[in-house]
Specification:
The chain is an all-alpha fold. 61% of the residues lie in helices and 0% in strands. Helix 3 runs antiparallel to helix 4, helix 3 runs parallel beside helix 6 (113-122) and helix 3 packs parallel to helix 8 (143-153). It is globular.
Length: 257
């Protein structure tokens, strides 16, 4: 710092002037500000979650499984905070929302490039891809692909589709992958690092399921059975996503243990 450089301040470090000026309600309705802030906050948390998933993939790729645990744990904690934010949004009643809903036009959370990217980076690649970030992520192996590759490097025999395929296509669960992860769960002392990795992944899938469920309830509470602003079927579409899992064999293997 030179003698002419002003000292760093809290507002300057965080860019608060820009951040707090980024809310632009299009109506005079009180609840529109809450609606904007809730969704902007989710996008900020998604930015951090994407960063952490990317870090975890790189660590797993280099067989630093223990080092990856911190990033994965942070992701599930971020998801928990995002899920709790639905509770704040439910303080907005259907009457409140209906007073400004028309200003949203065709905008919808369905268009969030970051949310789609997050899903794709985890391993869920059966969703529409709307933005460049998501499309770029779909060209790379997912977190689930990285975990399976680490499993193979540990000596487990996995089929080619689990290790090399067209990454842009949806992942299809494989019996051989389930059998390999089952073996990890059956001898946790021997495969402790892989076992803990698997449980961190289940934490993330669990948190995602909770987020989706709270989303369904919130939308049901606020708009009922109306269609979504982005042209989706609203609650009906959201309900169809509840069974989605990024790491499917980690769930199916539990039946046979």
């Amino acid at each position: 710092m030179t003698e002419h450089t002003p000292p760093m301040t809290y507002p300057a470090y965080l860019g608060l002037d820009q951040l707090l000026a980024a809310q632009h309600p299009l109506s005079d309705e009180h609840d529109e500000m809450l609606f904007i802030i809730i969704h902007q906050t989710k996008e900020l948390w998604l930015k951090q979650a994407i960063l952490e998933v990317g870090t975890a993939i790189r660590l797993v790729d280099s067989d630093q499984l223990v080092e990856a645990y911190k990033a994965l744990a942070r992701v599930s904690r971020i998801q928990a905070v995002m899920t709790m934010s639905w509770d704040v949004l439910t303080t907005m009643t259907p009457s409140d929302y209906s007073r400004f809903r028309d200003v949203l036009g065709s905008s919808s959370g369905f268009q969030s490039d970051q949310f789609r990217t997050f899903e794709v980076m985890l391993g869920a690649r059966d969703s529409a891809r709307h933005g460049p970030m998501t499309q770029a992520a779909a060209l790379q192996p997912s977190l689930w692909d990285a975990a399976n590759a680490a499993l193979a490097r540990s000596g487990f025999d996995l089929p080619t589709p689990a290790l090399a395929r067209d990454w842009t296509q949806p992942y299809a669960p494989l019996a051989e992958v389930e059998a390999a992860w089952t073996a990890v769960y059956q001898d946790t002392a021997r495969w402790w690092a892989l076992y803990q990795l698997a449980e961190k992944l289940v934490d993330i899938d669990d948190a995602m399921a909770s987020w989706r469920y709270r989303h369904v309830l919130t939308v049901s509470r606020v708009i009922g059975g109306k269609r979504g602003t982005g042209g989706t079927a609203g609650v009906a579409y959201l309900q169809s996503t509840l069974a989605k899992r990024a790491f499917p064999e980690l769930w199916s293997l539990r039946t046979g243990l």
